[in-house]
């Protein structure tokens, strides 16, 4: 170690380092331009000059980057002499390269705005960064300096393009003026590394974080592009990484795991749009895929959310979306299920971004808005001006000059129409990933004809091999909620299979007993992190530490290179012990990622983890004020002061434990309810299965055959039998729920049954109340015996279809779709009717091929593999006639003969069909009883009366109320397999609670200050979890009112706190007092 | 980020001339969206003026209107409240409740002789780092135009 003085402060540094390194070490910043820590010092730009005085010698001005730190030196970094010299240097540089951003910035910081000498408008400042980079790190010499003095030039050898350049681009990357150095050395074009996250719309470096929200959020090296891994040179990243996190030796590691079950979720690929040559993808730059457009719309996308076309970055004014690209064609006779809605969404978002003026046209065949809330969304898109054009576009042409695109299609009455668009988005379909065949072979499972995984209707999350479960679009194209449901369902199956092994590998972590600090005065320890140079490169960390020491109640403060490192955790624990700290403040990065780590350290040191507070001086100071070190340091001090102010008021919080009643109530004994019950019982829990009717089975009792030929009645018998035999399932039929009280872990339900009332206690509730079929009022239903519903038709067909036989009368059957669906009173799609109609139509054709079957429809919504049956029905001669919502079919009777008149939208004329049987596809409607169940459970219904889940996409079986789950048609209309999946999913979600003996509640939750609460009850309604109740009681002869919070449902959102006029209800850890202390501290003048 | 110090300057903040008044703004950001958005602005090294002092709250719906008024009457030049976009609230609708309270706050401001523009409510998602920086830039400029708070003592 050697000792020297920097700005009159004595300091010790390692021998052999440069002055610049010594200066940086003490936290002083000086400008540099030609310096790079991976390259040898060069001393070219002279911006880093400092005043150096060796003992007994006069002071000289030297470049700090190339001057060795020596014993006894006295260095001044900001003396007048130094600043004068720097200003002259900056002025000369600015005159040479007035456009270069870093030169301008440095000059501005030094107070030089305009050079007094003539500008040269050069693009090279002769810093030599590119030359050193090429030679020292890349091991090439593709560029160098020739000539001397005024004739000095940056040149490749012999002034020519040269094969020694391997077009790595390092010279361009490091050039501070933005010069294209590589254009001197090579004529080759660079191939940028395509950024897969943005579907190749932009590029990325070879060392990169895959995307902003990647988990873990860590950098990776692209081994195919890394210069070091391929050629042995470069190696810069390893040198500059202060955390020493880069290991070039790392190799893929094979790990062997012993498992009892496997869940396969390999996802999907999008269809390669290049294969549809006529649509021009890959040839025309302004034809893009929907996934590319999705990235373009995204704030984290290639254009930061600005909607522009890739070709010329121009804002599009007319966008065409083409549906069914790679779906519903001769090779792929399935529907990708999601494209209609994502195109609709993209159109709406594009209009939000670009305003009303943007025209969005969606070319489609059938608009398949079949899921919950989709029909309403589709209507909203139409209201917003999205145009839907029913036509499959065969070909796209490009206008060569503008690169605009001509879409030619057949409009109404087969009129040829040609329209010009700025951008065409292809709604590409889903297909299985290429590697699934190998995957299927390895796991020994069967695939279907399209290479999706083969499953059956009654085991929809199970592959053909026992113990191998499947989820997601690997099974069938599907949307997010269905994927989430199937994933939970697969987990439920695995949980049942592994029931006996559950919990056997868990080792509980033990913490020391907590020190009681309630009576102690705050003793605060402050730890300020350098984060390598992430913080310390900008913020003067030692100054922040010094400042923290001056604040009241701070008894200890220090800085760490990485406060999150393992040794720093040990140090924090040691300091807590040594200084009897009872509050800890860490000034580093974001609590969103690091609070749990430090809280754990607190617990390990025997302190309550809630006595901890963070100041985010990296994300909020050093990274966002990189060029304002003074301001960043000042702000860091402010943030530390604010954190300390809050920490003084922190109180130890105990996370309460709630004992869990390990049993479930399942409301509804239909397919969903029985499936949930069996799945929960399979996982080892007791289940009360409550059914209002006298027998189990629900709507499944009326289903006689499935599209794929499976027999549901056999399955129903099997399931009922399994339920009956399972000792853990307690079936209560003919039962009515009178009341449910309590919350997660401890519900109490009163059930009346045959005049008797019983009370059961249970930890969770699964709502599986089902739905009912609409009883049509239209089309002469109930007035003419030959107008029936699909369900009635199915029963007749299952009984042998006598009415079709030669002596029966039914020569012509007309089916009418969307009866009680997609109308003003029921603005949603019932999802199952299209497939049901096709199922029954095919059955009729099977029993009596000569019978004419007409299906009058608005859109045929046979999503997924149901599409194949739609194709089959058309092949077998079922006639599909499209009608419009505004011109519904009419059914009239002449004596008993039925006449159906419909305006055929395709033919553009009315047609009339004499019909022997009219079959109505009656919609699925919610039960009225839902309202009462919803009240008991404090869960919401949507506007139609179906139960409303916690999140439409990501939490499709949860409610916002903990401990209550949802499945089956009580959620929304759905098919058998979808009901089974959701029922299994609900059981998996319920098991996350039942698997524990007790649950730990949040620490930061609401509590009432009784002395302040006057019972005004403003907070009662505002609580989104209905966790606050008003209590009235007699006290000293008068009625007193006060509110009470339910700890087990409170999530700590604090809406109550913001509503209370008396400060009578507060959130632990975010009390008004604590927030106020932070604000007050911010407003103190530092 | 990049290995070279010169790379990072591409997003350089316009340093205001020294004589411009530097406002002090209290930012109340919800944990789930806007605080995360601010983190992303940091991770992306997007530069914005050092005018804000951020207080993390769990939800914009937990901010009592009194806190905003108090901050302004104690000398803050502006208060910025940020929550999740409508429909994204971690607690269902806390942000919408904050929006309603914002109306009340604006009404109260004139009683205290303060301009309505000293308070702003914005939605910033966890993916909107650039937007967070832009909001801070815009609001800082807006407050700069208003000048120091009349309640400022120094």
Let me know the largest β-sheet of chain B.
4 strands, parallel
Structural shape of chain B: globular
Q: What's the number of helices of chain B? A: 4
Supply the CATH superfamily name of one domain in chain A.
Answer: FAD/NAD(P)-binding domain
Multimer state: heterodimer
Helix content of chain A: 25-40%
State the helix count of chain A. 28
Which term fits the overall shape of chain A? globular
Stretches of chain B where pLDDT falls below 50 for ≥5 residues? 1-18
Strand order of the main beta sheet of chain B, please?
A: 2-1-3-4
The CATH architecture of one domain in chain A would be: 3-Layer(bba) Sandwich
CATH architecture of chain B: 3-Layer(aba) Sandwich
CATH topology of chain B: Rossmann fold
CATH class of chain B: Alpha Beta
The rounded Rg of chain A comes to: 36 Å
Structure at a glance:
The complex is a heterodimer of chains A (1086) and B (154). By secondary structure, chain A is of the alpha/beta class. A four-stranded parallel beta sheet of chain B has the order 2-1-3-4, with helices on both faces.
Description:
The complex is a heterodimer of chains A (1086) and B (154). With 1086 residues, chain A is an alpha/beta fold. Among the domains of chain A are: 2-109, Ubiquitin-like (UB roll) (Roll); 129-185, Alpha-Beta Plaits (2-Layer Sandwich), CATH 3.30.70.20; 269-431, FAD/NAD(P)-binding domain; 436-500, no CATH class; 524-648, Rossmann fold; 773-925, FAD/NAD(P)-binding domain; 1006-1083, Alpha-Beta Plaits, CATH 3.30.70.3270. A five-stranded mixed β-sheet of chain A has the order 2-1-5-3-4, sandwiched between helices. In chain A, β31 and β32 form a beta hairpin. In chain A, α9 runs parallel beside α10, α14 runs parallel beside α18 (629-648) and α22 crosses α23 (866-875). Chain A is globular, with a radius of gyration of 36 Å. The two termini of chain A are 36 Å apart. Chain B is an alpha/beta fold. Chain B has a single domain (22-146), classed as Lumazine/riboflavin synthase (Rossmann fold). Helices cover 36% and strands 15% of the residues of chain B. Chain B contains four helices and four strands. Chain B has a four-stranded parallel β-sheet with strand order 2-1-3-4, with helices on both faces. In chain B, α1 links the parallel β1 (25-30) and β2. In chain B, α1 (34-43) crosses α4 (129-146). Chain B is globular, with a radius of gyration of 16 Å. Chains A and B meet through α3, α8, α17, α18 and α27 of A and α1, β2, α2, α3 and α4 of B.
